[in-house]
Amino acid sequence: MLYIRLTLLPFFFFCCLLIDAKSQTIREEFTLEKNWRFTKGDKPEAKQKDYDDRKWEVVTVPHDWAIYGPFDRSYDLQQVAVTQNGESVASTKTGRTGGLPYVGIGWYRNTFHIAQFDKNKKRVSLVFDGAMSEAHVYVNGKEAIFWPYGYNAFHCDVTDLLNADGRNNVLAIRLENKEQSSRWYPGAGLYRNVHVISSNNIHVPVWGTYVTTPFVSEAYASVKLKTDIANCGEVDVRVLTVIKDGEGKVVAQKDNTLGMHHGQPFEQNFIVDQPNLWSPETPYLYKAISKVYKDGNLVDEYTTRFGIRDIRVIADKGFFLNGKRRKFQGVCNHHDLGPLGAAVNVAALRRQLTLLKDMGCDAIRTSHNMPAPELVDLCDEMGFMMMIEPFDEWDIAKCKNGYHRFFNEWAEKDMVNMLHHYRNHASVVMWSIGNEVPSQCSPEGYKVAAFLQDICHREDPSRPVTCGMDQVSCVLENGFAALLDIPGLNYRANRYEEAYHRLPQNLVLGSETASTVSSRGVYKFPVEKKTDARYDDHQSSAYDLEYCNWSNTPDVDFAMADDFDWSMGQFVWTGFDYLGEPTPYDKDAWPNHSSMFGIIDLASIPKDRYYLYRSVWNKNAHTLHILPHWNWKGREGQQTPVFVYTDYPAAELFINGKSYGKQVKNKASVESRYRFMWMDAIYEPGEVKVIAYDDQGNQVAEKKVVTAGKPDHIELIPDRTALAADGKDLVYMNVRIVDKDGNWCPAESRLVKFSVSGSGKYRASANGDPTSLDAFHLPQMHLFSGQLTAIAQAGEQEGMLIFEAKAKGVRSAKIAINVK
Ligand code: GAL
C-alpha cells in the first residue's frame, strides 16, 4: 500500500493526515492555535454551542492571560508563615506569585472540524498539554471533561459529542485560578497546546505505547515495545513495527499477529545491533513506527520516538549512564519563560537549554510540576537528563488553595497521565514524587510516599524514584527517606554524610541546592558571605556570596560532588530566575516580584554565577570571567574585590599594570577551591587584566575589563541570524549601551524604545531587575546594569525582520534578521 503524508490543510494549523491508498483517513492530528476567543470573568452561558462570542478578544494559544499585567502589589497578597523557610509567624507576602493578575476565571472558545467524520468508524480525542487551571471542557454545549491540575496533560474522547458531519464543533473551556493557590507565578489560561486527534475505531490511544531497553551494550541492545490497541475486540491484530535510526535507516523490524484475548498491550521485542547510545553528549534518537492491521486493512500508524540507554543506581557508587558514573550537573527550573510568561514557546525553551548547555549543565528538574511536552522533546534532542516532578503539595496544604484540595481524588490519575505521557523519553532518567511536602514529618507521610512511588514502579519499572526532602531529621528517623529508590536532599549539605551512613541506599542526591541569590551587575561592599542579606535598593550582591539561611554558596555543592563517590550531584535552585518568590524581599517588600536565585536572570542574561558553574561543569571549553565591572566613580582608592571564575588552576591579577599577585586554587576555604578572590584590590579607573596559567605555570589565557567612557550608542547583539517563517520563532536581542569604543556602560538604566517592522513583530522584553514594573509586552524597557533583552517574533512570510532600538541621548541601532 501507498501512504501519503499531507500537511497544512488551509483551515488547520500544523495539521497532519495519514491516508491509505483507498483514501481512507487513518489518523489526523492538529493543534488548535489561532482564532481563539477569550474573555476574563465568568460567563456560564459560554459553554453553549450558539453563544455569541464575537465581542471577545481574539487570541492565539498558547496564551497566558496574566502576563500583560500591570504589576500590582495587591494581586494575590498572601498572609502566611512559610514554614519550609523556617517561619513560624505569618507575615504579608508581596509579589509571591509575581504581582500579576493570574487569579480569576477565564473562558476560551474555538471551533474545529474533523475530515471524513463518521461516528461509527472514527474516534476523536482532545489532548490538553496543560490548562491553568480547574479546566471544564465543553464540546457542543456538553461537558467533556474536568481536570483540576493546571500543570498536567489530560485527554478525553469527544467522539459522541461531535456534530454528525464533523464540522463546526464548538469547544469552550472554563478555567479558574483561586487566590493563594501557588508559591510562584503559575500563569493563567490555555498556556500550553491543545491537540485534536482523529483515528479509526481501532487505534493506538493517546500515549498508547511503552518502550524500554531492557538490555544495552555496545554490541547490541534489546528494545521492548508495548502497544495498546483500543476497540480491537477479541480479534487477531497484526502489528508491523520498523525501528529506524536517526538517519531514517531501518535497523530492526517485527511483523506479528496476535489474538488480543488477554487484554494486554501488544508486545514486540527487537534487537538493535551496535546501537548509538543516548547520552547528554550524544543525544541519539530512534523511532519505532508501528502499522496496525485488522483483517488485512491498515487501521492505524503510530510513531514512538525513543533513545537507547542504560541507567543504573548503585549503592556507594552513585548514578551510571551507559556504564559510566556521572554526577548530575543539573538545575531546577520553574516553567515560566520570563517576559513570555507561562505561554510555551519552543524557541524560548531552546534558548534556555542552549545557554544551560554551554554552562555544562546536563540535567533539568521540572520543579515542581509536569513540564510542557516541548521541553521534554528538546531535552531528548539536545541532551539533558530530566527529573520530572509532579507535585509541590500532597494532601497537606502549603498554600491555602493549593493542590491538597484535589490530592486524594486526583493524585493517582495525575501520576498515571504524567508517567504515560513521558515514559518513552530518553531524557527522563528519574521521577520525583514531590517537593518538600509537609507529609515528610507526619506519622503517615511515608504511606503517601509509598503509594506514589508504587504508582511509578507499576507504570514504569524502568526508572528510579526520588523525592525532594528538606526535613532531614524527620525523614532519617521515620522511614520516609529509606523507602525511596533515591534519597534526594534539598539543601543541608552538612547532613549529606550522616544521611549517606544512615540510609540503606547509601547514596545522596542534591535534589535542590544552593539558593544563592544575586542581581545581575549589582555588587555590594564590603564583600562578605551572608545569609538573608537585604539592602535599601532591594537587590542582592553579584559576588555570589549571599544565600538563604537554609542554603549555601555554589562552592559547597561542587565540593560535595568532588569529594564523595556516593554523592550523586545536584540540581541547583535555579537555572533561570522566575516570576514570583522574590526571596529575600518577599515580606512586604514590593516592588520585588521575581526571584533572585537564577544563575541566569529573568531576561535570560547570564549573571556572573553562570561562569562559576561553567568553570566547573563545562569540560570542553575554557572559562575566564572577571567580576565586577570596572566603572566605580566615587570608589577611587577604595577596596573593590576582584573575583575570577575559571577552570584554569592559577591566575594573576593586574590593575592598570600593577600585579595583585598570582593565586592558585587551594583548600584554605571552600570558595578558594573554586574561585580566585583578590579581596584587597583597589579601584582606580582603567583596566583590570587577568592572566591564567596551566598546571605547568605557562601563561595560557588573558582577559580584560575596562572602565567605560561616556554612553555613546546602543549595541544590539541577536542570538540568531535567521528565523523560521512559522509565526512563532524568536530572536533574543541583547540591547546594551556602549561608549564610543564599544565598551559596555554597566551603570546605564536609560529607557530604550523598540520598533519592529517587516516579517515579524515585537513580542516582549525584560531587564532582569526583580523590582522593575515595566510591562513586558510594551515596546520599551529600562536597562538594568546596562543591559536588557528584547524579543521579536518571526512572521509567517519570508523576508527581513527589522529591529530598531532608540534611547534619549545616545545613537540608535537597527538590525535585520532573515526570516525564511
Ligand atoms: C525550596 C523550595 C523551592 C524554593 C526554594 C527557595 O525550599 O523547594 O521551591 O522555594 O526553597 O530557596
Automatic annotation (TrEMBL):
Highest rank taxon of the organism: Bacteria
List residues of the Glycoside hydrolase family 2 immunoglobulin-like beta-sandwich domain. Answer: 208-309
Keywords, A to Z, come to: Glycosidase, Hydrolase
Q: Which residues form the Glycoside hydrolase family 2 catalytic domain?
A: 314-479
Give all residue intervals belonging to the Glycoside hydrolase family domain.
714-815
TM region positions = none
Q: Which SUPFAM superfamilies match?
A: (Trans)glycosidases, beta-Galactosidase/glucuronidase domain, Galactose-binding domain-like
Instruction: Give the DUF4982 domain ranges.
Output: 637-701
Per the database record, which ranges form the Glycosyl hydrolases family 2 sugar binding domain? Answer: 32-178
Keyword Zinc-finger assigned to the entry: answer is no
Extract the InterPro entries matched here.
Beta-gal/glucu_dom_sf (IPR036156), DUF4982 (IPR032311), Galactose-bd-like_sf (IPR008979), GH (IPR017853), GH2_Domain-Containing (IPR051913), Glyco_hydro2_dom5 (IPR040605), Glyco_hydro_2 (IPR006101), Glyco_hydro_2_cat (IPR006103)
What the record says about family reads: Belongs to the glycosyl hydrolase 2 family.
Write the protein's name. Answer: Beta-galactosidase GalB
Organism of this sequence: Olivibacter ginsenosidimutans
Lineage of this protein's species? Bacteria, Pseudomonadati, Bacteroidota, Sphingobacteriia, Sphingobacteriales
